[in-house]
Design brief:
By secondary structure, the chain is of the alpha+beta class. It is built from 11 helices and 9 strands. It binds 3,4-dihydroxyphenylalanine.
Length: about 350
């Protein structure tokens, strides 16, 4: 019996080292310690031993059993801990890993200017109307008091589609379409693309304008000044001032050119304002009676204020861009600066 116990003990000790998983260890354990295992089998043999040998044999078998339970327990704890560690390592989330880079788009600077202006004018009760980019000669010129032989036509080198249709050279025809279809009084701004055969650092064949039109009774140049002054203060600087200089447009009488005090130097004179302290930002005027009459409204009852500005010009001034082609070259490095 002593020999058997010794052999089993040696076997167990060896297999403890061989086995490397909890499941494997439990199999070995049941081989020795389960009801039908080798150690209970030894206990069953006790009865067949001579009486005087039984106590000693019982003692060493029990000792073996206790020892075996202890070493299996402690080896199992060891293996379970190791398996848990491995599982942690396997399932670990590395939250320090850099996230996937997503490219974010940006609004175009001319779009930013357009949206800002629309916001400012909407705040003064203006609605937005967008006219067609392909216009007829009548809306783009004739109705705006610019008949075929009018010298002002020459200044706007026009892309013609045929005798009558053209790419609009200005957003002013939107004024005509509004007056033809809308019952006054109303206030409207009309942003959109315009086209001229023109191409240099400050001119692009496709550019964008925003037209403004107010139709009501008894309007004067003073109302126009108030309106544009509020726009300039919101658009450029709360300190901005505006001034009118006399000018000429066929569709307004009187006509003015509007300057804003230089928002770079505050009016002292700098490179941006070419030392004058003022920057020209738009053309405007009181709508010519003939234009109002052309649209079927009574010029003795209705008066109009109009203005038109170049969105690229405003964007160039505001963001310090010196070449208009940068807006339309499609270079993402330009856009990314407006994020
Ligand atoms: N349409 C003019 C241009 O393209 C700009 C303009 C000037 C529009 C005066 C107006 C205005 O409505 O009153 O040069």
């Amino acid at each position: 019996m002593k020999e058997k116990v010794k052999r089993i003990r040696a076997e167990i000790a060896r297999s403890l080292d061989d086995v490397s998983t909890v499941a494997g260890l439990r199999e070995v354990r049941s081989k020795y310690l389960s009801r039908s295992g080798e150690i209970p089998a030894l206990l069953k043999l006790l009865g067949s031993l001579p009486k005087e040998e039984r106590p000693e044999a019982g003692r060493i078998i029990n000792e073996l059993k206790n020892w075996a339970e202890e070493v299996f327990d402690s080896r199992e704890a060891e293996l379970a801990a190791k398996e848990l560690e491995e599982r942690y390592a396997r399932e670990a989330l590395d939250i320090s890993m850099p996230a996937e880079f997503r490219r974010v788009g940006t609004l175009h600077p001319v779009t930013l200017v357009r949206e800002e202006l629309v916001r400012i004018f909407a705040g003064m009760g203006f609605i937005v109307y967008e006219g067609p980019e392909i216009e007829d000669d009548y809306h783009n010129f004739t109705a705006l008091n610019t008949p075929r032989d009018h010298p002002a036509r020459d200044k706007q080198d026009t892309f013609y589609i045929n005798e009558d249709l053209l790419l609009r050279t200005q957003t002013s025809p939107a004024q005509i379409r509004m007056m033809e279809t809308t019952k006054p009084p109303f206030k409207v701004v009309s942003p959109g693309r315009t086209f001229r055969r023109d191409d240099d650092a400050t001119h692009s064949p496709m550019f964008q304008q925003m037209e403004g039109l107010v139709i009501d009774r008894g309007l004067s140049l003073c109302d126009l000044h108030g309106l544009l002054d509020i726009m300039a203060k919101n658009m450029f600087s709360s300190e901005a001032k505006t001034r009118f200089r006399p000018s000429y447009f066929p569709f307004t009488e009187p006509s003015v050119e509007v300057d804003v005090s230089c928002f770079e130097c505050g009016g002292a004179g700098c490179r941006l304002c070419k030392g004058t302290g003022w920057i020209e930002i738009l053309g405007a005027g009181v709508v010519n009676r003939r234009v109002i009459a052309n649209c079927g409204l009574d010029p003795d009852e209705w008066t109009g204020l109009a203005f038109g500005l170049g969105l690229e010009r405003i964007a160039m001034l505001k963001y310090g861009i010196n070449n208009i082609s940068l807006f339309y070259d499609g270079d993402a490095r330009i856009l990314s600066q407006f994020r």
